[in-house]
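Sample intake sheet
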Amino acid sequence: MAFFLDDIDECLWDHLKKTDKKIVLYGMGDGAVKIKAVLDDIGVNVSAIMASDDFVRGHSFMGYNVKKLSEIEEEFDDVIILVCFGTQLPDVMEHIIDISRRHELYAPNVPVAGDGVFTLDYAKEHQAELKKVYDILEDAQSKKVFEDIIRYKLSGKLEYLLDAQTDPEEKFDLLGIGTDETYVDLGAYDGDTIIEFLNGTTMQFKKIYAVEPDSRNFRKMKRRLYMLGSALIEAYNCGAWNEDTTLVFSVRKGRGSCAEPKKGELLNPARFREIKMIKVDSMLKGDSASYIKIDVEGAEENAILGAKETIANYSPKLNIALYHRNEDMFRLPLLIKSINKKYRLYMRHYPYIPDWDTNLFAVCK
């Protein structure tokens, strides 16, 4: 990938090690904890934590009194603001962009799952794989998105995320979704992506398989989709994996409820829970699928391997999240191509800060 890695001298973390500006974390939550851990590891001090005005209310977080931006501006002459949360809400994104016009601001890329960060050394270590993915992407927009997202991962700069954006409504046309699909939704959450699918097909489809490991989200999904009936939708309260088994997962709220599998005893039921895992190939029992969405909080590679026979034999349209692990940008596209060489690969990023809506689309046309 010498065509653009050679013009990058440092990544965000290198820049933060050299700056004399005060570092301010924007946000309270898992993202702030992860980013502070990286900063601690490289010897960079955090001077303050801020939140949007409506969320401050005397909060403290990680030993810091949480402040408003106006208080940060009064206290410090010059700062670097690091965005530590994700959003796709237009007004929140515009607020972040507005702050970036007044202050040096970055949205550091830290993986949702797995270890380490996407540094320049990491990119160069995997340069051959990255270049191979770039070369097999089908259109100019995919190549642009790929380069912009890699540049974003290295720099944390919003400009690359914004430049990579495409219209989400393009998705179904790109995939060629029709009205007779057998749709497998891995990581169905509360049914939101199934509703999106139903809206896109005007409620016309052949069958839906919904897989969601979090029991609360599963119940919400069942209530939301009760009108479809059991004959048209099969719902599984389990996770997608490369074998039929049971694993212990960390329990989190929201979409990240099952991001990392754990081995060993179930020591703390409040934090860890046993979850049944299923292979798509086992679930389908040899039947075909025409469209598979895979957004499973870092388990995408295992989910793909569990659907290997289906992907090889039936060439379903694929919609795969590419942002949970550092290696996803190269390992997942190359894995799909190794299973079924007929696929044409496309990459798109939809409006989101950070890169949490970057996806691989695979179609056989």
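Comment: The first helix runs from residue 2 to 5. The longest strand covers residues 272-278.
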